[in-house]
């Protein structure tokens, strides 16, 4: 008997007894008793957990010939990225028995069995960063998209994404769903190579106002159903014109959101049509998991619509469909408790969304398409950053001159049934939590007005949030090994280091038999110290490489009048510089400005010259006089740049819209860098800051025609902090 073949732990035996028909009385008893029992047993066995590793291992599947034969024709691609769907959120990844029969994903199960499943596939801990790696094929810290808000959710303009590459090679490109890699002109998909885009208003799951190629279209009905209708209509056109296409479908399911508006109930809900929610009302599940399973089954039905259409068309035999989640599961309060967690995550993986533990970054990727064997599996170490180079190779593109160097490795060979290459077998795959940044993270600028490197805020050991360093946020996979920089939650026994005021243990784990458990039973820190040191040193080298990248840790450049458009939003949390301590960057804006001279600055480029009307969107407890500067930094510094002075009235009860005047702006000369600086020149004398929350500086070109999109902070990530700042009561979640 091996270390992984121990007798089933007592808590597992109790689950098994119930699964064999213990009855309602036992089930009710278990729901009350087991959370306490499991917690007690875990504490009692803390010294002997090396003998209690358990988790569901995927059974072998029958491998059959490809559903669709290989073809010499240029293939189509559909990539589906499901929001917050973890590795375990799939019926196929649950063991048999009544306790795991709640989750039903028949269409996904069928799809997974019809192609290749990559079981050692890694994503990033959060939404925006995963999208950045998928689209660019590069580690997210290189791309500028470092977090989910606070101005760090923009893809840097120097990056080239997969839609631009495929589009330049003759592909039709489209995106339907959640973008989350930029919120203003120059960072939307229709500016970045996607020829057709349908973007719902974020997290509104019914009667959604969707942005179709930048123009608003109010829809009726459930958002994911409407979106799938748009997808199928688009595919019918592609079937008719017989041109190769790339479709990117990042769904909003199964992320939390609202029913119809940002004021429609608490933020942490998972809305689904009544036919799904009613099904789970009387099941012995936590409300959180019941809502998740209802939403997941609803999404599975929408995915089934897509499969049925493709299989009825002539597209299926030449289309690669790829399906993954974007990060680990978002576990709500009740789902994090021992018993509900076992129900939702039978793999036994530790961690969840936001962490670099396996539950936060290990996901799945299923691939169906021409020449792909049915029921095939591979445990090759792969990640989201490998997808773009894979699509490029499958499309037969040999030259990508404008793209910065890939971090990803094409796995076209594995899709085609070949063994992993030597490069794939020897690779290291790095993960970094986004929590080392968070809000009010503003690196100092150098003389060139770019991020200064090195600097204390970016120090590997002592930088980041609260001076706790970036090391604590890292994890490394290599072959069967996993090095974890912060093993406090998993009680690691590797060498410790200091992060802020805390002593933090590291840990080295060695996975096997399909189990990925960051628990003492798989820890080898004491037994393989050389491997631990190798991966620890590799993590530090990784961070140094990220820091050395040309535009890492750089916030967005805002384009005024891009493509002649009449309106441009500068989001206030995109500040590249602000007065420390007295001006604070929020998830969806900034607050502060207490004394004369307090300010915040933004990097801009005026693309279209013209007379621009400038409007501020803010909330304020105190009236004050502000000066808004526009021009080169040197002229702002010496006081010769264009500017407007305006008194902003106080309005503590609502978001105020105040037009402060107009400026005649020439186009920014080539090679120059311009800025917008908002500076307080006269306060009220109060000890309270003038700005409670500023979210947008809006530039409107006078006399210009065309649709204008106003930025809505209330529908973005981090809205909980935004609503609290704006005085909402009884705010939940977000």
Automatic annotation (TrEMBL):
Residues 75-397 form the Sulfatase N-terminal domain. This is Sulfatase N-terminal domain-containing protein. It comes from Tetradesmus obliquus. The chain crosses the membrane at residues 18-38. Keywords: Hydrolase, Membrane, Transmembrane, Transmembrane helix. It holds the Pfam family Sulfatase. Belongs to the sulfatase family. The keyword Transferase does not apply.
């Amino acid at each position: 008997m091996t270390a992984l073949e121990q007798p089933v732990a007592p808590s597992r035996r109790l689950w098994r007894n119930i699964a064999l028909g213990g009855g309602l009385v036992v089930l009710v008893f278990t729901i009350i008793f087991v959370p306490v029992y499991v917690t007690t047993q875990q504490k009692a066995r803390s010294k002997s957990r090396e003998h209690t590793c358990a988790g569901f291992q995927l059974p072998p599947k029958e491998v059959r010939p490809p559903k669709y034969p290989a073809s010499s024709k240029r293939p189509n691609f559909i990539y589906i990225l499901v929001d917050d769907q973890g590795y375990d959120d799939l019926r196929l990844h649950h063991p048999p028995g009544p306790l795991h029969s709640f989750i039903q994903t028949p269409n996904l199960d069928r799809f997974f069995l019809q192609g290749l499943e990559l079981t050692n596939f890694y994503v990033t801990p959060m939404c925006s960063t995963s999208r950045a790696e998928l689209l660019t094929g590069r580690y997210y810290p290189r791309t500028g998209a470092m977090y989910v808000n606070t101005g760090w959710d923009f893809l840097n303009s120097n990056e080239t994404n997969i839609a631009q590459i495929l589009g330049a090679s003759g592909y039709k490109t489209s995106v339907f769903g959640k973008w989350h890699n930029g919120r203003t002109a120059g960072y939307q998909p229709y500016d970045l190579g996607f020829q057709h885009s349908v973007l719902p208003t974020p997290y509104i799951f019914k009667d959604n106002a969707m942005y179709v190629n930048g123009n608003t279209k109010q829809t009726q009905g459930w958002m994911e159903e409407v979106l799938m209708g748009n997808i199928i209509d688009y595919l019918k056109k592609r079937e008719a014109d017989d041109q190769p296409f790339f479709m990117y479908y990042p769904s909003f399911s199964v992320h939390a959101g609202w029913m119809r508006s940002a004021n429609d109930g608490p933020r942490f809900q998972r809305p689904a049509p009544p036919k799904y929610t009613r099904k789970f009302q009387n099941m012995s599940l936590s409300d959180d998991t019941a809502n998740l399973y209802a939403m997941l089954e609803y999404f599975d039905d929408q995915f089934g619509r897509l499969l049925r259409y493709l299989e009825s068309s002539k597209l299926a035999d030449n289309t690669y469909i790829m399906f993954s989640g974007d990060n680990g599961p978002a576990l709500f309060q009740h789902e994090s408790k021992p018993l509900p967690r076992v129900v939702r995550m039978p793999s036994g993986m530790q961690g969840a969304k936001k962490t670099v533990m396996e539950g936060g970054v290990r996901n799945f990727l299923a691939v169906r398409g021409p020449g792909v064997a049915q029921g095939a599996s591979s445990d090759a170490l792969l990640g989201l950053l490998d997808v773009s180079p894979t699509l490029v190779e499958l499309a037969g593109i040999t030259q990508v001159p404008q793209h910065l160097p890939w971090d990803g490795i094409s796995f076209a060979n594995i899709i085609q049934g070949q063994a992993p290459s030597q490069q794939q077998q020897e690779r290291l795959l790095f993960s970094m939590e986004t929590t080392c940044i968070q809000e009010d993270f503003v690196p100092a600028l150098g003389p060139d007005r770019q991020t200064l490197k090195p600097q204390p805020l970016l120090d590997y050991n002592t930088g980041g949030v609260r001076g706790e360093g970036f090391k604590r946020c890292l994890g490394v996979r290599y072959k069967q090994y996993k090095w974890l920089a912060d093993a406090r939650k998993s009680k690691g026994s590797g060498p410790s280091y200091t992060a802020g005021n805390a002593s933090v243990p590291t840990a080295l784990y060695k996975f096997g038999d399909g189990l990925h458990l960051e628990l003492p039973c798989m820890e080898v820190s004491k037994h393989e110290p050389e491997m631990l040191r190798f991966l620890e040193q590799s993590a530090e080298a990784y961070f140094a490489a990220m820091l050395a990248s040309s535009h890492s840790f750089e916030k967005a450049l805002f384009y005024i009048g891009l493509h002649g458009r009449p309106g441009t939003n500068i989001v206030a949390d995109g500040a590249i510089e602000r007065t420390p301590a007295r001006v604070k960057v929020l998830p969806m804006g900034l607050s502060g400005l207490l004394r004369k001279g307090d300010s915040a600055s933004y990097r801009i480029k005026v693309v279209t010259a013209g007379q621009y009307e400038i409007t501020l969107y803010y909330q304020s407890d105190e009236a004050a006089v502000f000066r808004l500067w526009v021009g080169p930094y040197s002229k702002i510094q010496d006081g010769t740049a264009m500017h407007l002075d305006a008194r902003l009235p106080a309005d503590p009860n609502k978001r105020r819209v105040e037009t402060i005047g107009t400026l005649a702006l020439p186009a920014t000369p080539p090679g120059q860098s311009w800025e917008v600086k908002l500076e307080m020149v006269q306060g009220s004398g109060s000890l309270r800051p003038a700005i409670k929350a500023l979210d947008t500086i809006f530039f409107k070109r006078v006399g210009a025609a065309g649709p204008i999109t106003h930025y809505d902070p209330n529908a973005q990530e981090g809205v909980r902090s935004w609503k609290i700042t704006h005085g909402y009561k009884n705010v939940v979640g977000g």
